[in-house]
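Dig into what follows:
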Amino acid sequence: MAVLFLGYAAGKAAFAMQSRLGFPGGPPVSAAETANYFLDAATAQWFASASGVVGACIALATVTALGRRVPRTVMLVVLTVMLLAVGGGAVIMIVDAFVGLGVGWQWHHGVLGMLMIALLLDMTRSYAVSHSQRELGAT
């Protein structure tokens, strides 16, 4: 998961340096669409790139000793919020790829969206199970 989030961050950073919206390999964003955004393209992409780095750090925190010091409830809330945010974007990719919303995602983007949801669900499940087993072993 950390590698996927870092790949996302790198793609967003590449587009930020070009002051373009979108994602490499994804559908293009027209100039008319970019005019409606609150932030300019470069700033928006840098924020998105930072969110990818934060996602990678959270993914690493679920499997490292330092991250295991975070209270279980806090980490599960963070993972749930991350699942909702990333899952929401993934659902849009999936629906557009296989049903068609007009965004322009293709079938392989839909498959990637399903993979991301499955991996995030498994990361959350794995953390919850591992952390609760550790607590049971400590008592």
Notes: Residues 62 and 126 are 9 Å apart (CA to CA). The radius of gyration is 17 Å.
